[in-house]
Amino acid sequence: MLPDRLEQLSVMGLPIHWSRDYAGWLLSNMRQGRGAHVVTLNAEMSMQADQNVVLRKIIQSADLVIPDGAGIVLYFRLKGKRIQRCPGIELAAELLQKVAPDEAVFFYGGTPGVAETAMQAWQQRSPNLAIAGVQHGYLTPEQQPAFQESLRSLQPKLIFVGLGVPRQEFWIAEHRHLCPQAIWVGVGGSFDIWSGSKSRAPAWFRQNHLEWLYRLYQEPWRWRRMLSLPQFAWRALTYTKP
């Protein structure tokens, strides 16, 4: 069965692609020789893009923009369009479960040791998972050329970049030419969750669009970033196309 075709929606001039089978769409494209840059859009990133022209253009040119945040889903619900939230960590996990043994995976980002532990956890979970490599996100500028050449040589099919928003989006946009047939996904703090360094919100919080509240409980210093939620609600509802 072919995956659903993408329906393109818009929030604050940014695209949102809606499908019930994002992983199927991505893998189908990859196996036909077409790579993709995946952006996991939430309210915070939307507000950053509202102020950052470069980030805005990257999101607008991405091959797939998924509704990662509860704010995005609620916005469309107010507009009479019901879509489901697709957290980036869940899409990433689905891709890892569905890639073929000859479709190698690369983890890049996180503090030293975290991505390695996350990769080991996935190897135990999926013994047939092909590992192209892993690299923490604290390389010096002098170390970057060798790392980039290694990526070019390895040509992994699935590349997860966990450098945080918007740094990971900038990095992918600048370097995806190294592996043009790969799926590139900015995964934020997913390596921390998979490695056990941090825990994800319990199911009740996720199902009731309160994952942000659990993250605030874990990391109180994030409170300033959480101000983007009411700011997004107001900006989205009053947005007029330039």
Automatic annotation (TrEMBL):
Q: Which UniProt keywords apply?
A: Glycosyltransferase, Transferase
Q: Which InterPro entries match?
A: WecG_TagA_CpsF
Under the heading Pfam families, the entry gives: Glyco_tran_WecG
Identify the PANTHER family for this entry.
Answer: PTHR34136, UDP-N-ACETYL-D-MANNOSAMINURONIC ACID TRANSFERASE
What NCBIfam families does the entry give?
Answer: wecG_tagA_cpsF
Q: What is this protein called?
A: WecB/TagA/CpsF family glycosyltransferase
Species, as recorded: Almyronema epifaneia S1
